[in-house]
Write a structure and sequence with these properties.
The complex is a heterodimer of chains A (about 280) and B (about 260). With about 280 residues, chain A is an all-alpha fold. In chain A, about 80% of the residues lie in helices and about 0% in strands. Chain A has helices at about 1-10, 10-15, 20-25, 30-35, 35-55, 70-80, 80-115, 115-130, 140-145, 150-175, 180-185, 190-230, 235-245, 245-275. Chain A is elongated and about 75 Å long. The chains are: A mainly alpha (about 280), B mainly alpha (about 260).
Amino acid sequence: MTTALLRALDTGPTSGRKPPNARRMPGSSARAAASGIWPAATFLLVLAVAWEAAPRLGLVSPSSVPTLSAVLGDLVRVIADPAVWRALALTVRTWVFGLVVGAALAIPLGVVLGLRHGVYEVVRVPLEAIRPIPPIVILPLALLVLGGGVAYQVVLVVQGAMWPLLIQTAYAVRHVDATVLDTARSFRLGRRRTLLWVRLPAAAPAVVTGLRLAAATAFAVTVVTELVGGARGVGALMMIAQSGGDVVRVYALTVLIGILGLAITAGFARLERRLLVWQPGVAR
Amino acid sequence: MSGSLSGAVTRRLVTPLVLPVLLLVAYHWWASSAANPYFPTLPAIVTASADAWWGEGWSRHVVPSLRNLFAGFGLGTLIGVALGTLLGRVPVLQAATGPAIGFLLAIPPVALLPVFLLALGVGARLQIGVIVFAVALYLTVCTADAVRAIEPVVLDVCAVYRVRGPRRWVVVLLPAVLPQLLAALRVALSLAVLVMVVSEFVGASRGIGAYTLLAQQSFAYRQMWAGMVLVAALGVSLNALFSVLERTLLTAASIAPSTGARP
C-alpha cells in the first residue's frame, strides 16, 4: 500500500512540469514556482515513509531510531505537557536574555571601536584571532565558578553572542563608503550628525546580519549549557530522556528544538526585511 | 624610508600584540595577588599544560581528538561537497530537499548529540558521526549556493570552446567556486572543533574535552585550564593553518584571496 501511495506521489513533479506554460518560459521563475512545492512534498513524503519503514523492517534498531509515528505521537504528548512548556520557557528566556545583554554590550562597543582608528588597529587582530575559538571553551571554568545555574548560562550565552557581533559592528561602522562620507562632509554635517545619520544607517544591514548570526550562536550555546551543565531547560530534558533510555522522547524533543530554531530563523529573517526595507538590496 | 618601513613593521607586528600582552600581564598580576584556586597564575597553567599534554596525555587525549576531528572533517567535506554540487546542478533536487535541509539547519548541531548518543553510543563513533553530520550539512548548503552562483556566461564559454567532462570541472568549475568553498570550509572547521569538544563533554572517556570536564569535576583546576588553553590554541592554530592553505590554493589558481567581507 505504501509503495502504491509512493508511486502515486512520485508522479507529482513530472505531471507538474508538463503544463504548457512551463514550456513557454523555460528557466523562468514561473517554472520554479510550478515545480516548487511538488518536489519538496514528494521528498518529505519519501523521507517520512522511509523513516517509518526502516525501524519496522529492522533496517535500523528501534532502540536507536524509533518510527516516525511514535515520534510524532510523543511530540503531541510533549506539546501537551506543562513541564515541557516550563522547560521551553526557561530555554527561550536564557536565549533572549543572553542575546539582548550580548547585543547591548557588543553594538555600542563595536561602534566606538569602529570610530576610533587607534583602538580599532589594536583590537582588530586579537578579535579576529579569537573568532575560531569555540564559544563554549570557558564552559568548565564558568561551571566551576558559577555553578550550574542561570548565571552560568547567561555568562556563556552573552560571550558567545558578543564576539562575532562586536567584530561585525566595528567593521561595518568603519568601512562606510568613502563617497558617502565625503558627501556628508560637503554638507558640513559634523561628527555627531554624520554618525547618527550616515554611519549608523550605513552599518545597520551588517549589524542586523551579525545579530542573526549571534542569535544562532546564542541558541546553540544555550542548548549546550543545558546538555552539559545540567541547567534547566529543553536540553536538560533531552539528557534526562537519553540517560533514561526514552528514545522516542529524545527524538520528540529534538524535533521541538528544530521547531524553535525554525521560529528563530524565520523571526530574524522577518526582522531583517522589516528593518532594512529602505536598503536597496545592498547587504554589506 | 627606513622610518616608514619600521613604522609599517610596528603596525603589522607590534600593534596586534599590545592588547593580548596587556591582558596576560594584568591577569597574571591579578591571579598572583588574588591567590584564587580557580584562577591559577600563568606559569602554573603552562606547567600544567606541559604535564597534561606531554607523553601519555598526548597519546591518550590529544591524538584521539585530532583523529576524530580530521576523520569527521574529511568525510563530512567529501559528502557535503558532493551533495552540494549535485543539488547546485539539479534545481529539482534542490527544491525537493530544501524544506528538509532547512529544518535540519535550524537545529543546532550540538542539540543532536542526545540522538547521536542513542544511535552511536559513547566513543569515537559518536564524535566522528556528529562532526560528519555538522560539516556535511553546512557544506552541502554552501556548495550548492556556490555552484548555483556560477555565471551562466562561464558555462556558455565552456560550451563554445567545447570544454567538457572532467576538464570542465577541473579547469573551469572548481576555480569558479573555490573562493566561496574555501571560506565555507574554514567556517566548517571551526564548527567541527566546537562539535568535537561538546561531544567529548557529553560522551567520551578520551579526548581533550573529556579530559577538561573530568578535571573540572574532580576540582583539578590547573588541569582544567590546561584543557581550555589547548582547545583555544587548537581553534586558533587550525584556523591559521587553513588561512595559509587558502591563500596558497587561491594564488595557485590565480584568484585574488577573498576580502574580509562577512556573510
